[in-house]
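Posting this for the archive.
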Amino acid sequence: MHCPFCRHPDSRVIDSRTSDDGLSIRRRRQCPECGGRFTTTETASLNVIKRSGVMEPFSREKVISGVRKACQGRPVTEADLAVLAQRVEEAVRQTGVSQLDTNEIGLAILGPLRDLDEVAYLRFASVYQAFDSLDDFESAITDLRADHADPELADR
C-alpha cells in the first residue's frame, strides 16, 4: 500500500477492525518513511456475470432498482428495499464465490422479497422462475397459502 503523503511503496498496519456491516475491514496504517498515518478499507470483490457475458461489480442499487419495479403500488418503503438489498448481498457473499450470474442473484432475492411482500414476490418470481402459464402462478400461490397454514414451512 503506497503512502498517500510521500508515495513510499510500503506501510505498516497499526490496527484492523471490521466495519459496522461486517462486509469490510478498516485498517489504520503508518508509513515507515514519513511517519504519516492513514486509513484503508478493504472489501472482497463480488462480480456479476450478465447474460451478455459482461462482468461488473455487484451493486445493491441494482438489486433495489429491480425489486422496486415488482413493488410498484405496494406498501414497501425505500428503507425496506435497502434492508432487502443488504440481506441479498449478505446471502450471496456467504456462498463464498466471487462471481455469480444475474439469474443466481435474482433467485437470491426471492426469499427476502417473499418475506417483505407476497404480491411483489409473485411479480418478481414470474420473471426469475420463468412462469409460462397460469398453472405456475397457481402453484406459487398454493405454496404461499401452505406456508400461511403451517408457519414452520415459512422459514425455509
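The mean pLDDT is 89. Residues 78-94 form the longest helix (17 residues).
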